[in-house]
Automatic annotation (TrEMBL):
Record keywords, A-Z: Glycoprotein
Highest taxon of the lineage: Eukaryota
Transmembrane segments: none
Keyword Glycoprotein attached: yes
The organism of origin for this protein: Boothiomyces macroporosus
Protein name: Fibrocystin-L
Family, similarity comment: Belongs to the comF family.
Coiled coil regions, renumbered to chain: none
Signal sequence annotation: none
PANTHER family assigned to the protein according to its UniProt record, in alphabetical order: G8 DOMAIN-CONTAINING PROTEIN DDB_G0286311-RELATED, G8 DOMAIN-CONTAINING PROTEIN DDB_G0288475-RELATED
InterPro entries: CEMIP_beta-hel_dom, G8_domain, G8_domain-comF-like
Keyword S-adenosyl-L-methionine: no
Stretches assigned to the G8 domain: 104-228
Annotated Pfam families: CEMIP_beta-hel, G8
Length: 1123
């Protein structure tokens, strides 16, 4: 592609109105590129030619599964023709075969009738079934002894049976002899034939210690993607691959809208009439003529394309439909539930249920299937009865596989990998599936390979999440029900259900379901493996590369196309039964690490690593309620949020297109004739209110984002349903970033850093937003951001970004800072001074009353409920001489303070409490950048005495004198000595008797020790604890070491606060001055310190609404395809 770089980056001091006109001009100048193209002017995009584009007069055509950032691996089909035509070791040509119809091999010379009578095959024979061997009718249960082989001829054969048990061998083709003929095995049986506990041979093929091999012609690739958008009414579609599919086979074109449910879906099944290469659109593009026109639009733009799935195979194993007892839509328990008045769907219609066939491999049996169609298989809520099930094979799973096969209209799953390792699941498709499709069962399954598989149109069992909980993080726990829900997690059935990530997932795709790829937290093994010592939720991914998911994550706002959350217990403490909670239940989950074999003890940290991942059309592209993840080369398009992630997270090379050119149906499942938004359920409405590229959380996170692009993230987008703000103005939400700002309980430290951020077709006055603006919260005041190169804030140098809700707390040098637009609510300041000094950030908690702190989150300082959160102190910078109350940071009962540390302003913070000077302060949760000495200054009455101690965590054990667990702070008697010793030793304080201020040197220490060799170590190595990616480092929080200050007021022992009688708003550490002092040397003056002057402070606009006149009228480089 030829790329036009439009760069208009300059700092322009213009009026707010002119700035908006300037921005709109920039938007107008580029918006037509790629959006207002003529209908006959499109692109061919080809991954094989490095993204170069060439002009054509036909619609957009995508080749070779091209994607802008993601590289999708594709199966190697170079030997397909040779493998399909090979005829080596064909079982129907093996020696000593005897025909089934040979009466001499049967007892009494009587060939078995197809009358439901069970049959035990003779011993020590190789028996051949030809197209004339079998009677019409249904055979009973067939047993193949361990020394007998049953072989099918490569001929048109139909076997009707109630089940087959394989102790010996059942061979239909071989790995080097794929059969070409149409062969059908129809499995018969009513649900009443299945006893409890269920027998594995009932309506199944049961290889217990035996070998089952079925090898048909391979039609490949088994699924592909549209090359260009397929419009309603068309009978010709174009796909990206050359295929060997044939006429009269059935295919399915996936939905490209958000909702995918029985009562509202746009998946379409059609029959192929003809195929031909469309080489004018690319060497591999194929045109397919369909038997009837499409009803819906199936999108295929440069952002993403609908999958096209081949359903038909020439060897079919199926549950006979006359007695598979479908109970789906006519059963009162499976009705579609709607809200009162509109009938729109609050829950999906009930899943199709039935008693289909199954294939079961156990007891070191071998199952090798290639190119098989499994139709109407699976037995709803019958444990272990799935279309294909490898059961407790352990490492013997290496001998089995399922490849190039189709599972369709299954009543219970696609494939279960149960207690089995090293199994291969490759190039299969699953469509119209009840329950999880590809299912890792107990959490012990590892080193399996799942590659190039597709799962789509997934149906839940039981009642999905209570609709009233759509916006919540926590959901109701679901329990085992022996009749309706034997596996509680099927209430949130997904395409891929991954109880243990330590497997290989390459090139898979999912459409529909609760999520595409679900990673539930299991803290111990489940099911038959429950005695195995393992914590599956801590296991890292082995390989997770090139996977995609879409039209999913719809039924709950926090559900993701890739969902790492939910909590499964084999033995629920309340009931002793299996339970599952699909919501945020991961207090101990996803603490990803490396552990010793047969142990749950972590020996080193590890990361869930996803590479080349794409999500689209989902409430969340990825939702990760975990601890450590790396997301490398990721695309998220048309999502409510591209990514919402927890813990230590690195996102690198992300492309988030907030809204694409795919025109979605506006009211996805609102009833016909009632298209007003108020008639739509919240699930249907939420997606149309707004979106976010990435969400910054409010506490306890470490997030680094690098080399990331946000495109088309504006508040002016097609289909938006405006919300009405508190001022009565309607608006659409749409920003690249979102801050969680609802909480007074959960408050951020320094948690987020970015590098090389790009915005394309984004409004620079609305790049981010505060998620909640009705209440000036503690979390809102502490929000901050380390913009390591200035690109996130559209500046030319590194910036420190902090909340404008905190008065001037985050405003440092007014000449090097500006305030963003009102919607963005942040100060943006250079993070390096003109003299080259670094401005860092710090965070800590100052607890003065344990009783008050215990009320946080209970009766005071709530989590979004806006209960009282009283101010107990104010903080400012040591050398800032502004009015403390008017310009300082209000410190609430939740007394966590996060803020900048500027060496020009004294290198620390001045804090004064409303009730006086506390006699007991605990300083904890310290977070500082490497080798930073942070100064705290607190006013006290003259004559106050201090005892200050640094304590390691309670688990620090000084078994010898080598480990330091506690140290007393050393008092200095001049400010110069305080600064000098603070830098070299660290644990020092100085009480300045000229101004009666306690100066305390705060350095960050390890939790488990304060030093070794009997000495306090100010420079302990915390590097292994910090989080560093791509040259960016975020400091850790030490949660358990703490500093204790005990102050004794003169003549007032035992009081909680020493009285202070001077003017509260005068900052004692600053002397009024008419100049703004920049000299770091001033910070070494004993006693009263030189301060910033008022004149510069007053030069800042006092009206925040006018600060936008200083905003950056800058539009970042736009990568625009030139047509």
């Amino acid at each position: 592609m030829r790329i036009l770089k439009i760069a208009v980056c300059s700092l322009i001091a213009i009026s707010e109105g002119n700035m908006m006109n300037f921005i709109q001009d920039r938007l107008n100048n580029v918006s037509h590129v790629g959006k207002d193209k003529r209908a006959d002017d499109y692109l061919i995009v080809d991954n094989g030619i490095s993204g170069k584009a060439k002009r054509t007069s036909s619609p957009v055509f995508i080749q070779n599964h091209w994607s802008e950032v993601v590289t999708f691996p594709r199966p190697d089909l170079s030997t397909l023709t040779a493998d399909n035509t090979a005829a080596v070791n064909c079982p129907n040509m093996m020696p000593n075969l005897v025909n089934w119809s040979n009466s001499s091999i049967w007892p009494y010379g009587s060939i078995p009738n197809a009358d439901g009578t069970s049959i035990a095959l003779p011993n020590n024979l190789n028996i051949l079934i030809t197209n004339s061997s079998l009677y019409q009718g249904v055979y009973g249960y067939i047993t193949i002894p361990s020394n007998t082989t049953l072989v099918f001829d490569d001929a048109s054969i139909t076997l009707n049976t109630m089940g087959v048990t394989v102790y010996g061998k059942l061979l239909i083709g071989s790995e080097t002899c794929r059969y070409r003929s149409n062969i059908n095995i129809n499995l018969y049986g009513n649900i009443t034939a299945q006893p409890f506990p269920p027998d594995p041979f009932v309506k199944g093929i049961y290889a217990t210690g035996g070998t089952l091999e079925m090898h048909a012609q391979v039609y490949a690739p088994t699924w592909t993607r549209l090359a260009t958008t397929a419009l309603p009414g068309t009978t010709t579609i174009y796909i990206q691959d050359a295929v060997n599919w044939i006429p009269n086979q059935e295919i399915m074109i996936t939905t490209t809208v958000l909702k995918d449910s029985l009562e509202s879906h746009q998946n379409e099944v059609r029959t192929i009439l003809s195929l031909q290469l469309a080489s004018q659109y690319g060497s591999s593009v194929t045109a397919i003529t369909l038997n009837s026109p499409l009803q819906f639009l199936h999108y295929a733009g440069t952002e993403y394309q609908a999958e096209v799935v081949l359903l038909s195979r020439n060897i079919v194993v199926q549950g006979n439909m006359t007695n598979s007892e479908i109970t789906a839509l006519n059963n009162a328990n499976y009705t579609c539930l709607g809200d009162i008045g509109s009938g729109s769907s609050l829950r999906p219609c009930g899943a199709p249920t039935g008693f289909g066939g199954h294939i079961y491999i156990s007891d070191n049996g071998i199952g090798k299937l290639t190119g098989i169609e499994l139709l109407h298989m699976g037995q709803t809520n019958v444990m272990g009865r799935y279309p294909f099930h490898v059961h407790m094979l352990g490492n013997y799973g290496v001998h089995s596989y399922l490849k190039y096969s189709s599972i369709r209209s299954s009543f219970f799953r696609c494939v279960s990998i149960h207690g089995t390792n090293n199994f291969t699941l490759s190039n299969n498709v699953g469509y119209d599936i009840t329950g999880h499709c590809y299912y890792l069962e107990d959490g012990v399954e590892e080193y399996n390979t799942l590659e190039y598989n597709f799962a789509g149109f997934i149906h839940f069992l039981g009642n999905i999440t209570d609709p009233t909980m759509f916006y919540t993080q926590t959901l109701n726990t679901v329990y085992y029900d022996p009749i309706n829900l034997i596996v509680p997690s099927d209430v949130s059935a997904s395409g891929f259900y991954i109880t243990n990530p330590h497997n290989i997932f390459v090139g898979n795709a999912a459409s529909g379901g609760w999520s595409g790829f679900a990673f539930p937290a299991l803290y111990s093994a489940a099911g038959l493996s429950h005695a195995t010592i393992i914590n599956p939720s801590t296991r890292p991914t082995l390989i997770f590369d090139g996977n995609s998911a879409h039209s999913t994550g719809y039924w709950w706002q926090n559900a993701g196309a890739f969902y790492l959350g939910g909590f499964y217990q084999e033995f629920d403490p309340a009931t002793g039964l299996p339970s599952y909670n699909p919501g945020r239940m991961v207090s101990n989950g996803f603490n990803t690490c490396i552990s010793n074999p047969n142990s749950t003890t972590c020996i080193s940290d590890a990361w869930m690593r996803f590479t080349n991942t794409k999500a689209f059309l989902a409430n969340r592209g990825i939702m990760h309620w975990g601890n450590r993840q790396e997301l490398i080369r990721y695309e998220a398009h048309d999502c409510g949020k591209a990514a919402n992630m927890f813990g230590q997270v690195w996102v690198n090379q992300m492309l988030a297109i907030c809204r694409t050119q795919n025109v979605l149906p506006l009211y996805n499942s609102c009833p016909t004739g009632k298209t007003q938004w108020w008639n739509c359920a919240s699930r249907d409405l939420s997606y149309w209110n707004g979106y976010t590229g990435f969400e910054w959380y409010d506490v306890g996170q470490t997030h680094i984002l690098t080399n990331t692009t946000f495109r088309n993230c504006t508040t002016n987008w097609n289909g938006c349903i405006p919300q009405t703000g508190m001022n009565g103005i309607q608006y659409c939400m749409g920003t690249a970033w979102n801050f969680l700002t609802h909480s007074d309980q959960f408050v951020p430290e320094q948690m987020q850093a970015t590098g090389n951020i790009n915005y394309q077709l984004c409004d620079p006055t609305k790049l981010w937003r505060f998620g909640q603006t009705a209440h000036i919260s503690v979390s809102g005041r502490m929000q901050n951001w380390k913009d390591t190169d200035g690109t996130a804030s559209m500046q030319a140098s590194p910036q420190k970004i902090g909340s404008a809700w905190a008065n001037k707390w985050w405003l440092l040098d007014p000449n090097e800072c500006y305030q963003t637009s009102t919607e963005m609510n942040m100060w943006v300041c250079k993070s390096t001074t003109s003299s080259g000094q670094n401005i860092t950030s710090g965070s800590l908690i100052l607890e003065v009353s344990r009783l008050d702190q215990a009320t946080v989150g209970n009766t005071q300082c709530g989590n979004g409920n806006f209960i009282s959160c009283p101010t107990i102190a104010y903080a400012t910078h040591i050398l800032r001489n502004d009015n403390l109350t008017a310009s300082g940071l209000a410190v609430e009962v939740n007394s966590k303070i996060t803020g900048p540390i500027d060496p020009r302003l004294g290198g620390g913070w001045y804090i004064r409490y409303l009730k006086g000077a506390p006699t007991n302060i605990t300083i904890s949760n310290i977070q500082l950048e490497p080798n930073v000495t942070h100064i705290l200054a607190l006013p006290y009455p003259a004559g106050t005495q201090f005892n200050i101690v640094y304590n390691a965590a309670s688990w620090c054990r000084p078994w010898t004198r080598l480990i330091v667990c506690q140290t007393n702070f050393t008092q200095t008697f001049s400010y110069q000595d305080f600064i000098s010793m603070g830098s070299s030793y660290g644990a020092v304080y100085f009480f300045d008797t000229n101004i009666n201020v306690l100066y305390l040197s705060v350095v960050q220490q390890l939790d488990n020790q304060l030093g070794t060799n009997g000495a306090f170590d100010r420079y302990q190595d915390l590097s292994t604890k910090r989080f560093t990616r791509d040259g960016i480092t975020l400091p850790i929080v030490t949660w358990s070491s703490f500093i204790q200050i005990q102050a004794t007021c003169p003549g007032l022992p035992g009081v909680l606060y020493c009285p202070l009688t001077d003017n509260f708003d005068i900052v004692r550490t600053a002397v009024p001055s008419s100049t703004y002092s920049m000299s770091p040397a001033n910070s070494t003056t004993t006693g009263s310190q030189i301060a910033i002057g008022t004149s510069a402070s007053e030069s800042i606009h006092s009206d925040p609404s006018r600060i936008t006149s200083l905003a950056l009228a800058c539009f970042v480089a736009l990568s625009v395809i030139i047509i």
